[in-house]
Amino acid sequence: MISYIQIPILIVVFFLLQSMWRFWACISRMGFMREIGRRAPFMLQRDILAAVFACLPFVIALALWVGITLPDQPKNLSPLLAAFLSLACLCVCISILGRNGGRFSGHWAGSRESALRTVAALRLIDAAELNHALTVMQDAETNDTTKYR
Predict the structure, then answer these.
(1) How confident is the model over 73-107, as pLDDT tens digits?
(2) Is the pTM value of this prediction over 0.90?
(3) To bridge 104 with a disulfide, which of 5, 18, 19, 120 should be the other Cys (CB 3.0-4.6 Å)?
(4) Residue at 36 is within a domain
């Protein structure tokens, strides 16, 4: 049975995963992925755990919509139980990311800025590199951004 109760939950989870991906893509493009992993390993591990919990509503919805039954169960998963489990996974994901310090934003410019703030807060770059990165970011926002990739 197809239940449309989960669609709003899946939309929220999709945008949450997208903002997480944008942040880590910006960190990776700047070349500070290993340093972030060394200096703040719990930040990376916490985000991976939150991403796993954010992916679970998609798995639950797929199991419900395709009609997969669990072992030793006579019938499919109840749509209300599936919606409750998806909502619980979303709440756990949000509670894990509750202390992210505003790292995730809904657009690329905010993701770049939060990546720069995170790198600067971990003191991986000095003031001259931060000034250069900020000018490059401002130029990228005003001009064509493809020449900096």
Answers:
(1) 788 888 888 899 999 999 999 999 888 777 887 77
(2) no
(3) 19
(4) yes
